[in-house]
Amino acid sequence: MPQLPGGGTTLFPGRRMVALYGHPNTPGLGVLGEQDVDKSIARAKDLAADYQPLVKEPVVPAFELIATVADAGPGPDGDYSAESTVQQIQPWVDKAAKAGVYVVLDLQPGRADMLAQAKRYAPLLSKPHVGLALDPEWKLKPGQQPRTAVGSVNADEINRTSAWLAELTKSKNLPQKVFMLHQFRVPMLPDRQKIVTSHPELATVLHADGFGTPGEKFETWNALHRQPAPKGLYWGWKNFIDEDKPTFSAKQTYDVKPQSPVFVSYQ
């Protein structure tokens, strides 16, 4: 079986990840798009190095790369989501592999089905260093449009997607994959306790996306922890370089309670 960046075949708690979030060549969507792939690799490694002295386990640099971007217009397929092709993303994924950088493909599905979008990227998800993130903020109902409503997704759609990803991972004899769910409001995952977290092929991460002052960030974090949740969730945290006032240091980030995050991303 191939190894993960940092070694081994299971993700957590044996390592942590620190990621640049965004879409290639699009600075407005996050720090990943502020520089080319080689400079993004260097920047992710620098961020991971800031965290490494704080913990014993390896801190692996990562990309959280937005593969499908919620769009204000319906587009040719009417789903309000602009899907990158595998060929557009491939150079970033391949260079990341050579550099020991993990990649999480992020889906902003608009009105599309999350599983259908995930299947578009099966050739990339078949690689040992590539995982998947779902962003309910951008999962819209008929009549809704991006940036005018905060979306939501039910456990059934998430579970269909995770079951497919787990089977792909098993069939390809791949190491465990990150399966990440973004959330900053409770209604985004209305039946979160029904989400299946028992696939051994996947490490399910609940990624808290709140921004603002420290008080506002902790208010979001604490509200998400009070919501019913299945056993087996790992926790992630996002630092917003521009929107947070101020941006947390590496130590402040890892010191959050009740669980220090295993996945930290920067937007």
Descriptive notes:
- With 267 residues, this protein is of the alpha/beta class.
- It has a single domain, classed as TIM Barrel, CATH 3.20.20.
- The protein has helices spanning 37-51, 86-99, 114-120, 122-125, 155-171, 214-226, 250-254, and strands spanning 16-22, 59-70, 81-83, 102-107, 130-134, 177-183, 202-208, 234-239, 263-266.
- Helix 3 runs parallel beside helix 5.
- The longest helix is centred in the middle third of the chain and has 17 residues, at 155-171.
- It starts with 15 loop residues before the first strand and ends with a strand.
Task: Spell out the key features of this protein.
267 residues; alpha/beta; TIM Barrel; 8-stranded parallel barrel; 7 helices; globular
Strand order of the largest sheet: 1-2-4-5-6-7-8-9
Q: According to CATH, what is the topology?
A: TIM Barrel
Helical amount among residues, as a percent range? 25-40%
Label the overall shape: globular
Q: Please state the structural category.
A: alpha/beta
Beta-strand residue percentage: 15-25%
Q: Topology of this protein?
A:
Layout: E1 16-22, H1 37-51, E2 59-70, E3 81-83, H2 86-99, E4 102-107, H3 114-120, H4 122-125, E5 130-134, H5 155-171, E6 177-183, E7 202-208, H6 214-226, E8 234-239, H7 250-254, E9 263-266
Parallel strand pairs: 1-2, 1-9, 2-4, 4-5, 5-6, 6-7, 7-8, 8-9
Antiparallel strand pairs: 2-3
